[in-house]
Amino acid sequence: MDVTDDLLIQSIDDTITDFRTQYAMDECQIFFSNDEEAQLFCYQQLELLNVFKSLDLETIKQAARDKATFDIQSNIPYVIAIEILSAFKKSLLEKLLKHASSQMADTFYEMANAAENCIAQTYLNFELDKLVTFNKIRMESINRLSNTTTLHLYEAHLLWFGQLISALRTTDSNKMPELHPQKCTVGKWLTSNAHEVITDKTVLDEFIALHKNLHFIGKKIQLNFSHKPIDFHILMLLLKKVETLSLSIGVELSIISNVRFQASASKDPLTGTLNRQLLFHIFSTQFEVSRAVEKKFSLIMTDLDDFKFINDTYGHLEGDKVLKSFASMLINILRDSDFVIRFGGEEFLLILPTTEIDDAIRLAEKLKDTTHLLHTQYDLQKEVTASFGVLEISPDTETEIDEALMAKYIDKVDQALYFAKKNGKDQVSCLGPANPQ
């Protein structure tokens, strides 16, 4: 070991000491719920930093892999796992670059980059293994649908995404899927008859741009394979981006499917809402689609307050007028991809795809407030109010939807509506995310 090596080891040791007191714990505590978790993470991180003093590249790389495996088992996100090492690298390089000789900086830079790359590769392999499982679940969900309409395109896209995963697992550019945005199944549809399905040009243009962006990221992944050594940190970032775009395509295709279904579905003759006979088909489809695109959805059960009094006092014609005005308001405020189902009498069930609980509650509050305006807007004989129950559903990946399970979810949202009624009516009640088991 020469003098330069001794100086480098001393520099590493000094920086670790400074790092321990000035950086590590303060930064760690941002990410963890208690000091014990933060201290354990920092201890493991400092263990890796101390390995740099060996100046042995293979030893450092193995320590980085071991550290990444520990972090993954501890559910530490990649961005946190890499953060302290990156900050340490920056701190030490600033010191080394001030030295008359650049040899120490070059040596440390090579070791630090190798360690970061090993952490990134370990995380990448873990993420890819998860995606293989998730992609299988998404495919199974789509295949369980009896009428896929445009969702068959999502199935084709999932096959494309599966090829991309395979290429990333092997870093083999020959396994990459079709990268030309007009030659894959979705791309061919977009350039042929998509305009017949998506009649809004702005929506169509946005979808085309989303799809092109996905293929652009795919090309960047393929390009990264040609650079040696492969930068696994870049691949991790690209993978996250392509997964987000992939799910967005699934969401867009599901929205298109919902709109097309409602255009041809049978309607209640009085209110123009969907018939209850369609409930299980709609609910089960949304359940499977939500699982496929990994998005929660929500239910709102709403009921006009004191509707029997309106019928008894003002007659059934006025009651029908109230029902029609209330249903029209629901349909006009909701998105084209949302479902309004006449559940019975004056009760309506709203199924809201890709909608989490906070947004569903805000929507229910808006519907409640707008109900107050129906009296003057539709020249009703009495001011009307409505109560709302809200429920969020996060489909369990192990659960197969059937009518019994649907009934449990319906019962949950009905309980929420019951509480709204019991607590004074004209209000919104939520029981939280669903757990029907």
Summarize the structure.
This protein has helices spanning 3-31, 35-51, 57-73, 78-96, 103-143, 151-170, 185-191, 194-197, 201-225, 232-264, 279-293, 307-314, 316-333, 357-371, 374-377, 403-422; strands at 297-304, 339-344, 347-352, 386-393, 428-433. With 437 residues, it is of the alpha+beta class.
Structure description:
- The protein is of the alpha+beta class and 437 residues long.
- The protein folds into 3 domains: 3-124, Globin-like; 145-260; 267-433, Reverse transcriptase/Diguanylate cyclase domain (Alpha-Beta Plaits, 2-Layer Sandwich), CATH 3.30.70.
- Helices cover 67% and strands 8% of the residues.
- The chain has 16 helices and 5 strands.
- It has helices at 3-31, 35-51, 57-73, 78-96, 103-143, 151-170, 185-191, 194-197, 201-225, 232-264, 279-293, 307-314, 316-333, 357-371, 374-377, 403-422, and strands spanning 297-304, 339-344, 347-352, 386-393, 428-433.
- The protein has a 5-stranded mixed sheet with strand order 2-3-1-4-5, with helices on both faces.
- β2 and β3 form a beta hairpin.
- α1 packs antiparallel against α4.
- It is elongated, with a radius of gyration of 29 Å.
- The model has no long low-confidence stretch (mean pLDDT 89).
